[in-house]
Specification:
This protein is α+β, with helices and mostly antiparallel strands and about 170 residues long. The chain contains 3 helices and 9 strands; from the N terminus they run E-H-H-E-E-E-H-E-E-E-E-E. It has a single domain, classed as Gcn5-related N-acetyltransferase (GNAT) (Aminopeptidase, 3-Layer(aba) Sandwich), CATH 3.40.630. Strands 1, 2, 3, 4, 5, 6, 7, 8 and 9 form a 9-stranded mixed beta sheet that branches.
């Protein structure tokens, strides 16, 4: 299996993968398509896991901002991540997250934020974001599902304010 940047030729399989992984609904598959057409899309942060020409997993990390008064900081949001139902619990999701974190670090993004399963993401270093002065008003979610991972040392607890997802997420 290889982990690599998504290409245009993968789009169809990535759509189908998200559709299947999210229980035969296409909200997330469509979200991926919409994000690709926005300024927040970073091609190198749309990453796939491929084996024998089959896409088994996909992760999309894209731009968002943390706003505090007139200060605004560019950060990354993780959404969505999907692993084919037949291939879950083999570590593919973890490999995609680790590669995504590595690439965010290389590109200089300080934090990755997400809304997600509270028992899954902590395996990869995500922590409840509100404990670090980050807040979220666009979605009403419990504290333990709004999470952050520090990518650049020293940024957690330093970058504070409200996470603003781009309009494409609504
Ligand atoms: C969530 C998802 C991406 C994880 O990918 P994966 O390749 O199965 O995960 P990994 O193999 O890297 O990690 C497996 C571990 O995570 C746990 N895990 C997997 N899905 C989980 C979930 N939804 N909630 C909590 N834990 C989960 C497994 O039990 C396993 O734990 P263990 O290592 O203690 O045995 C995958 O299950 C998936 O596509 N789910 C459907 C879509 C989805 O919910 N996406 C995330 C939205 S927040």
């Amino acid at each position: 299996m290889i982990i690599r940047t998504e290409t245009i030729d993968d789009y169809k399989q990535v759509y189908q993968l998200n559709y299947l992984a999210f229980g035969n609904r296409d909200d997330e598959a469509q979200l991926v398509e919409k994000i690709r057409h926005t300024d927040g899309f970073i091609p190198e942060l749309s990453i796939v896991a491929e084996q024998e020409n089959q896409i088994l997993g996909h992760i999309l990390l894209s731009k968002a901002s943390v706003v505090d008064g007139d200060k605004e900081c560019e950060v990354i949001v993780l959404a969505p991540i999907a692993v084919h139902p037949d291939d879950q619990k083999r570590g593919i999701g973890g490999k995609l997250i680790q590669e995504g974190v590595k690439r965010c670090k290389a590109a200089g993004y300080p934090l990755i934020l997400l809304i997600g399963h509270p028992t899954y993401y902590p395996k990869y270093g995500f922590k409840p974001a509100r404990s670090y002065g980050l807040n979220l008003q666009q979605f009403e979610v419990p504290d333990n599902v709004f999470m952050v991972k520090e990518v650049i040392e020293g940024s957690l607890g330093t970058i504070k304010g409200e996470l603003k997802y781009p309009a494409v997420f609504f």
